[in-house]
Description:
about 240 residues, two-stranded antiparallel ribbon, 5 helices, elongated, 6 strands
Amino acid sequence: MKTLIQDTLWKFTENINSQTNKSDNKYYYDNNEAIRIELSSKIAKQYAGWILIEKEIRNITSWLNTYNDIVKEIFGDNIPKYSHIVPDNKREKSSLLKAIMVAIITSYGKLFTSAEVRKVKLDKSQFKNDKDKLDLHESLMELRNKFAAHGGGHEYEFVNVVLLLDSNKDNGTMPIITRELSQPNSLSYNDIPLLVELLNELKEKADQKIVKLSQKLYKDIYSIDNDFWYYHANSKT
């Protein structure tokens, strides 16, 4: 068993239901199994939503750290400031960078869009007093909307089908068809430090929301006598 709250008798075991693939944790107080009541109030749902947002931000930060490590491996101390192109002699890293980039921009977009499970979202107004962060945010959202989420037919990716003719007609050379394909392989390397700063700011915002909503939840729960909760638990069995 793991300690649930430091310096208390509350402990838990982590379990995953093999049929539903959902959490099926067991909780204990002083080694006796505790009663579990799932809360579904508006505040509880908001609290859950911000927990998901905070976890998403941590995921993005972790991927960005891996992304940054790969960029440093490719360029060493000579990382270009404004390019996002991978050199030809490092093309084996290109697919990996692209996969991480798509994960980052897709998950970043989710932070600012509401969903059925997660009823809350972040808002770009947080950056209204910081033009650089707002510009980066808009760039990421545009990249997400036009490439990662709704790919095809946009300036972020294109393919040209081209017919090639020998400039000397007298040679009698048969024409050939080729293709010109372009997709973004990576984020602009110059944006990485600012993106790290931006994510830290978003995480701080999410953490503040989680603390505030947690306090509201406890206030609501403690305003009701414990007998109500035990009666509620028994009525569910």
